[in-house]
Amino acid sequence: MYTSRVRASTLVFCRGIYKPSALSLVVCGATVAACIALYFKIATPQFIIENTPRLATYDGDDDIFITSDILRLRHETTPQRTVYLVGDSALREVVMEHQLAIELKNAGQAHRIMDLRSGGQTLLESLAIIDNINSISSGLVVLGVSARTFHLEKTDYDSAATGNRRGFTSSALSDFLIASGKKSFRITGVYAIDNFHFLLPRLIEHWRAPEGRITKRVAHQELHQPPQPLSELTASIQEYIRELSLPFENFEKRSRNGLAVLQAIAENVNRNNGLDLLLIEKPLNPLFIHQYLPDSFVQKYQHLMTKIAVRLNVSYLNPVHHFKPDPADFTDLIHVTGGVTAMKYTSLLAEGITNARNQQTAHP
Q1: Helix axis angle, 97-106 to 339-362, nearest 10°
Q2: CATH 3.40.50.1110 domain span(s) along the chain
Q3: Least enclosed by CB within 10 Å: which of 18, 39, 183, 355?
Q4: Can you tell me the distance from the alpha carbon of 83 to that of 52, in angstroms, rounded to the nearest whole number?
């Protein structure tokens, strides 16, 4: 008897799906229309800016904070001398923005510090971010680089095309993807449409948890991450070596796409007369360098970066040329957790920024 009832209910359900009544179609259509209308009403830059902390999809969601900052920057009308920190988590955890602001002020180079760093940020994402810096801005863009930075996977291009990690568009990124023969994205000028892949999950999260998961952007040096287990560190090293494509000649071939993105970034910055670009080499655990990277690779890479900086007319700083990082400050292959290494890195960056700004003043 029970089986017969289930079968009958299933048949009725299927009949309703394949042959819906007029009333059900009207109700369904009205519901869909209401959802779409609601989405377009709230999916606006102003809503994102006002509700940033409550739109994070997980603790430490850097992307929503970067989006909010970019949307604010777009509408600035008064220029401010600013240092824009752009890069991934390795740069995020080794440069302490509060210390940087203090040291710049003490050196007579007071700047606002804008943190545009995020975990796993690729050069393609950095290009989109830098492209959105307001043309009235003045100051310096600090971009974190390393040998691995220039290795781009297909997934990096796919993510850049869908825009699932940013709530803003970039004509420079779109043009670069098209010129590279990659899948790009269409810019309609309608915010809710252009940023659908980024906005929808966060608006759903906001609906599920209206009070929000976090209330502020946490300084990542405060998180005190534990050291990575040996097995995970070994796996990270193997992955890093694979991406470098040793020997150097293979690396140089494989990094061409990434270097092309860097050139697009430099050209974008150079078009803004008020901005300069400073490339800073991100930290790498010295134990890894000594045990796994041949001296010849390190020397050739440094020569390549110096040559590129001259060609692109940008500054290049490698802090480890001025001090030896302490392996004890590293939690894994590329991340530090405060300590002397982070303080020294930040001080050397402040010195590099001061020198770059003084040179710009001397040779406008």
Answers
A1: 40
A2: 78-185+216-362
A3: 18
A4: 22
* Tokens (6 digits) for 307: 């040559």
Taking phi over 0 as left and psi of -120 to 50 as alpha, with beta for the rest, 318 belongs to beta
Lookup: tokens for 151: 């290795």
Report H helices in 211-338: 230-244, 248-254, 256-270, 286-292, 295-312
* b (16+ CB within 10 A) / e for 34-48: eeeeeeeebbebebb
Q: Which amino acid is at 221?
A: Q
Q: Which helix (H) or strand (E) holds 180?
A: none
Query: Token pair of 115, please?
Result: 């943190």
pTM: 0.87
Per CATH, domain 78-185+216-362 is 3.40.50.1110: yes
* Helix boundaries (H) for 75-122: 89-94, 97-106
Question: Angle, nearest 10°, between helix axes 196-208 and 62-74?
Answer: 120
**Environment class of residue 270 by beta-carbon count within 10 Å: exposed (0-12), middle (13-18) or buried (19+)?**
middle
Is 177:157 a contact under the CB 8 Å cutoff?
yes
Do 350 and 107 meet the contact criterion of CB atoms below 8 Å apart? Answer: yes
Long-range own/partner contacts, residues 248-256 (CB < 8 A, 24 or more apart): 248/296, 248/297, 248/300, 248/301, 251/147, 251/297, 251/301, 252/304, 254/151, 255/147, 255/150, 255/151
